[in-house]
Predict the structure.
Amino acid sequence: MASKVTPWYKKKRVSQVKTDYAYDHTKCVCAKQQTAVRTSSSKSVSQVQAQATVAMAEPAYTIPAFRQRTADEGTEEYQRVSTKVGKGLTVIQEELHRMRVATKAQVDSIAIQREVRNMMYKKTDVLDDIPKLPDFLVALRPHTVWEKTPVKLFCTVQGNPRPIVKWYKGGVPVDPLTAPGKYKIENKYGVHSLIISRCAVSDTAEYSAVATNLHGTATSKATVTVKRASGSGESCQLGLVPHLTEIHPSKLEVSMLDRFFVSFGVEGGSISLVCTLVVVPDLPNLPPLAQWYRDDKLLKPSKLAEMSVGGGAARLTLPHLAKDDEGLYTLRIFTKDGTTEHSAYLFVSDADPSAPGAPGAPLSVKAYDINADYVLVAWKPPNTVNEVAITGYFVDRCESGSDTWVQCNDAPVKVCKYPVHGLKVGHSYHFRVRAVNSAGISRPSRKSDKVTALDAAESERLQVIKIEGKYDIVIKDDDLEGYVTIPGEPTDVHASEIFKSYVVLSWKPPSPRGRAPLWYVIEKCLAGTGAWQRINTAVKLHSPRYPVFDLQDGQKYQFRVYSVNLYGSSEASEPSEPIQKVDEDGVPSAPGQVVATRNTKSSVFVQWDAPKHLKKLMGYYIDGRIAGSKEWFPCNHKPFKHTRFVVHGLIPGESYTFRVQAVNVYGLSEESQESSSITVEPALGKGVEYATPSAPFGITLLSCDGSSMTLAWKSPKHCGGSKVNAYYIDKRNADSLVWKEVNLAAVTERICTVDNLTEGTFYEFKVQAANMAGVGVPSAPSAPMKCEAWTMEEPGPAYDLSFSEVRGQSLVLLWKAPVYTGASAVTGYLVDMAKKGSSEFVTLTQEAVNRRYLQVTGLKEGETYVFRVRSVNAAGVGKPSQLSEPICAKALPGTQEIVAGVDEETGDVFLSFEACEICEMSKFVWSKNYKAIGECPRVATTDKGRTSRLTFSSPNKDDLGSYSVVVTDTDGVSASHTLTEDALNTMLELSYAIRHPIIPLKHGLNYEVLEKGHVRFWLQAVKLSSSVSYRFIVNDKEVTSGEGIKISHDVATGVIQMTVDHFTRANEGTYTVQIHDGKAKAQSSLVLVGDVFKAALKEAEFQRKEHIRKQGPHFSEYLYFTVTEDCTVMLACKVANVKKETSFHWYKEDDEIVPETPPNVMSGACSLPIPLFSRKDHGIYKAVLSDDRGKDTSVFDISGQVFDDIINALAKNAGASASELVLQCTPEGIRLQCYMNYYTEEMKTIWKHKESKIASSEKMRIGGTAEMAWMQICDPSDKEKGNYSIEISDGVQTHTRSFDLSGQAYTDAYEEYLRLKAAAFAEKNRGRVVGGLPDVVTIMEAKSLSLTCTVWGEPTPEVTWFKNEQEVASTEHTKVTFEGGKFASLVITKVTPEDSGKYSINVRNKYGGEFVEITVSVYKQGEQIPEPKLGHPKTPAATPASTPVPPKSPAPPSKTPTPVPPKAQTPASMRSQASTPASTPIPKSPTPVPKSPTPTPKSPTPSRSAKSPTPPRFMKSPTPPRK
């Protein structure tokens, strides 16, 4: 239980009490200290203030008397001060009154207002932002004036921001443009005036000035009475006289040319809406008056909306797009004939989200209920389509002039309102909102307009006191309250906002409140407990608003408030009613049925039913998706307020589905049911962007009962390609420019009753037509119509006058019966006619006609006439109809009349009409006796091009009458025809003759052989009925269905057939078919004898055998060949009716072929590859397929033409893949090569030199490999220069590749050939070791070692032996010999371990040489024989006996290199040779080349594996490489 302790702010302290004088004195002193900072508005006012201060202060209180006193002293002091206060108040009031009267003459009202602002506690720069309600300082006053004299009404108003003043006459806005020169509105130096020049009696009315700003509205009214001079009648109050507003006829003629279309933008981008204008006269200093509207709200130029008019264009630029900018933009131009408008929708989509899946930014952020430290921020939720649902919102604030944003709420708020408190008094702020879901936080919204945190009640405490009816004195309530220390208690504590997350408390400030700064303290308790607790312990409240967030769910609370200032606290306010933190309302219910209809080639018109529970609806979001897709996309990004919307930007030809969600402060409702899928069709007319109807016209008033008016209008001249199925009507008061919708649901007829009208008021109407393509343009506004009840007994006007069958001397006039019939039924009609421009009407009918059409004759061709119709009843003749459109009595060029005839094929009786003009959207409308036929079983209409035909199903006397046809969307194309009885009988006779001819046959009797060997005889008639009868006659005998014969027919196709199962020689003969269908007959015969019969019999037997073959495994396709990309020939076949046990074998010349991949018969296809195909592959190939059900064989003979075809197929592939000719030099000559996928000599390949065919010879060798074809020029000379080419022919196409072997190319090639030839010769004749040396020798100590080998070279080479890279000289221990220029040996007698090492021999002549190494290992007796090194095989120790003895006379060197002895004759099985560089060839000299005693230091003994640097045998020429 909470203890009842008196709070600190309720404890009164004596030291805090001040007297009234002391308070004023302190205030005056403070004012003097601030004079350096604040500038006084007037010296006289400052002097008056100083005098007042001196008069109010006593010397005893010059020094502040704030000292501690006892309780008795305090009581005495209080009584003394109270006595002086009473006297002081009287003196102050008298002096104040005197000063105000004395200074009013010197200080005008503007200076007084500025002084009042200076008296407030805010600085001058902050005061400019203080919001104030509009307040009239000088109100309107009534006037009584004489007729034809001017009158001026004026007033003075203040407020912040500066109010906008609008003038009204009798509640209707005064528009100077409606009556140029009549009214003049001025605003000079804060004085607003309305001047009425040359007043008329009709100007007698109550005039009002309405001042409006963001914070409210104020109104001042006065009556103007206009009197006439004596004898002219009394003054008139013209309350019942209608004021018909006229559009200001500007002196400029303005026409719109290029108009802006539906546009699409993205948040953060920019866009310009431009409309080009033609202005006459085009005055550079006088542009036309243009106004821009968004969703019917006038836009003003700002940083977010830049406007310009001039240079032949009106432009609106939106430089910083946000979703707030989405809407319908309208440009209104004031022209000489009134106003012209153009509207188009701007869509602004969400920018890329800050995180994938994050929601879009909120929009329409605004601040309401602005107080000293509190603001209520509200916004609209974004559309969520595929994103995760929004869980809440963060509200941010930013001080004006700063870019630093501060988050206001720690936890996301779930509703689209949030109370922001803790603001600084006098500071200006902007607000923005961010949405939150599980994926992240959205981009911030557009920041709100600037708001200033000020006490809203401050302006209400200002009062205006009128002195002597002449001067105004503005004072604060503080001046009238007297001196108040302790404020009164607040009142009316209640909850202004109740949501799940918070409750906003509101109350009225105390009265009186005192001069001292005021703040509030709030306490709460559970309802009924009385245990009060303070809830704003750390917050000093200056506003009568406070949000409470920490209330428990389900609990009811009561609140009370204290007013506190520096003197103390007031009593507690009355407790509020119990408040529970619950949602007052939720999201709306889902919208109703959604219907999508076609609009344009890229848009769809979507309509839906409003939700059953609106719950403060903000608007709707429309979503769409492509049919078959799961991804929805938003159609609008700003809540749309109406229940019909045009979705733009769709893909023509694509199908879409739509859904709708309702929006309010709690979020989005459930989705509606999806609409039916609709295909976005392109425009129906060529070159017509919108296939919508043209504007209706001829709006007529048919009836009025005082509260409703029945209207009719004429259908559009152009329907747009589909039937007009809806009309939409708008209305407006004749004095207003704002149109209002009459019907949300479509009106299907051209007549509508408008309800809920005000009697005596004039109204204007306009109508729009709609079809499947969308809503068309509106009609011109009707003339003003007065809502006044009709009470006459005569009928109302007929309506909808139209014309048909306009010719040079006649026409047909049609109309509809009146809606208002009067006191009795309509009995007839009178038709009047007059020439255009004449008012003299002639009645065409002597008596009233009882039908609603009349054929008018006797017209003068080329003359223009107008008509009217008057309805007649028992009471008399009623009102005439609206005049018809002027019609010229002249037939359209090429006009045709209706023709009656009989169809030559079907015998149908018809009426046909060919239009002289037509468009793609036109339709033919047939009527009988001028009543539309529509759907009627007696007739059928068919249209083809310009012709329409009305066909009678069973014509008789009931079809007699007058038939007419009208072609829509034309300039009145129509005609009529009267069907008489004689004409009908004549056509019926012709129809009978046509309908009973000989049965026409599409095909006469013929035959075809079916599978199984069956033979089918058949014919086809053009048409057969179900009662057809026929018979087959073979060799003069009728044949009927029976065993082996089947006879049948098909009425649908007209086929009659007979099938013979077993066709034999007995079936030879003549076949005839006789047909009877009703009375029609037909006959057809077929002679099947001789060769024709033999061919049929042979085919039947073949099909029979084929059927038997196919009962077992068989070839569905016999063997055939294909060639793959790699030039492999494939023999392939297809098999059918096989099973796993079915075997498949390949044979060539009866020898079985087993392919690498076994054939798989279950795959349905088998193939045999033949790679590298050539003449060797000639032969007969066979494939055999067999199992227990049978056997089938396919034979393929590859020879003759088949072989040639395969070679041609290979040549086609090879020729297509052939590279360009490549030059390759060899020691023998110059070779040209052509690379291809495959080459064989069987291909038709021709080499040419200078267009002459080359035959293979010793000089020109031709050959090839599997990869290329080549031609080599041996020992080339200059005669071989020129262009070379190769032609590869595949029997159809010749593939040619060429190379120009001349000029530098030949020179380079020839030099390369000589170099290669010399290198080959050098390689052939260089010094080398032919054989005889081992790789490794292992020998016992004291044995003799003989290393002997055979060498060769031309000329005879020099031989040098080395040990461990040191040359070996011949000694007694080591003997070196070289006999006969062929045998070289190194003999070591009695080897010692020192003789171990690496020995080598260098054989060299002028063309080069070779280096061979031998490894010698010496071991002592008794030691283990060492293992051979480097993996060489073991070699027995060489002994003198085993040393090969060279022959005494070496064999002379041959021209070709001596062949290397086989490895079996060589001691070692592995030997590598190292070639040394050949010396430069020099002329032969008898003096041998001197031998170097030691190897060159730079060239140590090369390893056994080293190769000679002799140039390679082949080197590529400078020709391009192979592709």
Summary: The chain is about 10% helix and 40% strand. The first helix runs from residue 20 to 33.
